[in-house]
Amino acid sequence: MNKTVSVNISGFIFNIEETAFEKLNRYLNTIRGYFSESSGAEEIIEDIEARIAELFQEKISENYQVIKLKDVNEVIETMGQPEEYIDSDIDDDEPKQRSTEYSTGTRNKYRKIYRDPDDKVLGGVCTGIGYYFGIDPIWIRLFFVILLLGFGTGVLLYIILWIIIPMAKTPSEKLEMKGNPVTAENIGKQVEEEMENLKKKFKNFKEGSVDDHKSQLSSGVSDFFNFLAKLLKLLFSSLGKVLGFLFILLGLTVIVALFFSLGTSGEFLGYHSNLNDFVLSYPEVVDLIPEGLINTGWLSVFTILTIGIPFLALTFLGFNMLTNFVYKIRGLGVALFIIWFIASISAVFYAGSIAKDYVHEYDEKSTYQLEQVLGDTLIVEVMNDDIYTQEKARHFNDLDFIKVIGDRIYLGNPELDIEKSKTDEFQLIVYKESRGRNRGDALENARKIEYDYMELGNLISFSPFYSISKENGYHFENIRLRLLVPEGKAVLLQNGSERIIYDIENVTNTYDLNMVGKVWTMTNRGLECIECDPDDL
Questions:
Q1: How confident is the model over 105-146, as pLDDT tens digits?
Q2: In the 8-state DSSP scheme, what is residue 167?
Q3: Fewer Cβ atoms within 10 A, N terminus or C terminus of the chain?
Q4: What is the number of domains present in the chain?
Q5: Which of 38, 34, 175, 47 minimizes the C-alpha distance to 114?
Q6: Band of the pLDDT at 72, cuts 50, 70, 90?
Q7: Partners of residue 526 on adjacent β-strands
Q8: CA–CA distance from 336 to each of 303, 313, 321 (Å)?
Q9: Do residues 442 and 435 touch, judged by C-beta distance below 8 A?
Q10: Looking at residues 490-517, what average pLDDT do you find?
């Protein structure tokens, strides 16, 4: 078993084999001797030890806690052998020249992104990005200026990068920023360069008078902030004009749409179907509210005021921003706010009164025996519709149409499903669904739905719509149809039935539209088109 020792390297404790420690100690002593007469020798050694500690930490894991000789050899190879930059001929007074050039591939291998503290205008972001991508920082700065002037996002983007990109503080980090290998030689050279730059800056500062430097510094800071203030003022002024125009456009558009909504063609406050181009205007929506439930005239007024007043204020604000013309009427703002507040509370109250009439849901089920069917195949068709022509099948839970004619409200389409019968006869089950203030009202509303179908021999014809009275109002009424087919018997879905059939299960998982025009037999597995070509399904 190899003997181990504990050592402190740059503030980190490592367990290291004795032979490995001896080699590492000789390596560090050699480097100390080489840099003993260099400027900042102590800082160079500290950075080299910090880099060695970082490399050791990468090797340590839960199952690997001791630094071995091979680990020290790998670290020394990474940091560089002293013989590579110390002249092997001790009698030669001329020191060996150290290389400063690296290939692009080598630089890319070691490069990391940092902010440059030595060549910066604000936070060193542009210089750091320039080093990382190999681009002159002036082009990065120009890019941010274009973003600032053209889109106004340059400042925000720069601040975000300033926050998330770390500053290159140590010589190792500065070498990684520039893409140079973090070796003992490069760390020493980086520290020496920093010390020389610091001496030059101190010398230049010492040669000038304190008052001159204070004056130059004060003037530079003042000029920068004056330029920044003018730039921001111009930016916000231009942005204000654009926002003002957009506010006016948006405000007037909404206000005009609100007034048009009061007419028969206004759709701004109307109902828009998610499935097709079916649209109800605002007056048509109001016609669906049960008579006597609320005052629909006041509802319209409160709705218009609740929506219109904020957009009217937005229009005036945009006008002031665009023209810098301010005309105030004393108390107008307070009066408009009071009117808007009262209208909003009233609109909410009216909406609550309407919602109470739709709380409970109920459906009524009626079963009918189709006794006139003489053969084994029942023909299904849809009656002609002179009220609303709609070729599409209904999907999900969205109405295809609502139309008010006289004292009746016509709705469509009903949903037809086909299932297996438990008897030897064709059956039709009709579900009438509705809502109400309570379960009794919901049941009463469901019973008031009028729906027609006609049975004639082997033909059953369904109406494409159902109706309710305008006086009773719309309560989300719906009609669902279940046609029960005995095993061994069939149905023929005539053209036009795609308007009412809804998600019919079948053996081949054929879509509803592709089921039309074919004979479907009820087998022990379910509906099946026995004589169909599989390519047609």
A1: 444 455 778 888 777 677 788 888 888 888 887 777 777 777
A2: B
A3: N
A4: 4
A5: 175
A6: confident
A7: 523
A8: 15, 9, 20
A9: yes
A10: 91
Give the E-state strand segments of 18-78 in sequence order.
66-67
Q: Could you give the CA distance from residue 319 to residue 106 in angstroms, rounded to a whole number?
A: 61
pLDDT at 389: 56
Tell me, yes or no, whether 238 lies in a domain: no
CA distances (Å), origin 234, targets 148, 175, 241, 244, 442 = 11, 41, 11, 15, 64
pLDDT at residue 436, rounded to an integer: 93
366/349 same-domain check = no
Helix (H) or strand (E) holding 482: strand 478-485
Residue 168: which domain range?
Answer: 104-204
pLDDT at residue 198 tops 60: no
d(CA 520, CA 505) in angstroms, rounded, equals 11
The reply to whether 30 falls in a domain is yes
Kindly state whether residues 414 and 338 are assigned to the same domain: no
Based on the domain organization, do 348 and 475 belong to the same domain?
no
Q: Are residues 269 and 344 in the same domain?
A: yes
Do 514 and 477 form a contact (C-beta atoms < 8 A)? no
Tokens of 393: 């099948």
Cis before residue 458, ω within 30 degrees of 0?
no
Q: Which of 311, 336, 356 marks a domain boundary?
A: 356
Return the amino acid letter for 99.
S
The confidence band for 230, taking pLDDT boundaries of 50, 70 and 90, is low
Examine the domain organization and report whether 392 and 409 are in the same domain: yes
Start-to-end Cα distance in the chain? 78
297 and 433 part of one domain: no
User: How distant, in Å, are the alpha carbons of 126, 160, 182, 227, 407 from that of 142?
Assistant: 10, 18, 31, 16, 71
Q: Are 191 and 43 in contact (CB under 8 A)?
A: yes
**380 and 340 co-located in one domain:** no
219 within some domain = no
Flag whether pLDDT at 90 surpasses 50.
no
Count of alpha carbons within 13 Å of 280, Cβ hemisphere only?
19
411 and 399 within one domain? yes
Quote the pTM value.
0.50
Average pLDDT, the chain: 76
- Show the tokens assigned to 20: 């490995």
The two structure tokens encoding residue 37: 């007469």
Separation in Å, CA 42 to CA 176, 328, 366: 21, 72, 97
